[in-house]
Amino acid sequence: MTNEELKTHLLSLIPQATFVETGEFLEIFIHSENILPLMKNLKDDEKTQFDYLFCLTCIDRISSFEVVYHLLSKNYKHILVVKSTISNIENPQTETVSHIWKTAEFHEREVYDLFGVKFINHPDLRRIFLEDDWKGFPLRKNYSDPNMIEL
Length: 151
Hints:
CATH superfamily: NADH:ubiquinone oxidoreductase Nqo5 subunit
Radius of gyration: 16 Å
Number of helices: 3
């Protein structure tokens, strides 16, 4: 399936999505409320079969957060980048996809630990790298470490 065919098919699933082609990967942009139905369709749909989530990360856009999912269909050999916007910067949260792809469990914990994005219904959402009593989220742009020395 070409990127154009994939785009047409995805528009039939989520008509409000927007797309960008940057290089070889097709990127789909959606709001976080639509993440769960889209992700279920991407994995279960015979035309897509995205059976592997190989990367999940986050970007602090100052006025919002962007959760980025990289998906691979081993059967069809295509890759899709899904970008989900979270507008609530005070309490960022979105649904977990860990029940769809087991690999998301670790990635979502990392994003929670470093950005503070909560993944609703995650089976074990707790810090993974930093100590439990760590204050703040060090990859947020507004983070300041009281122990940091300005040079």
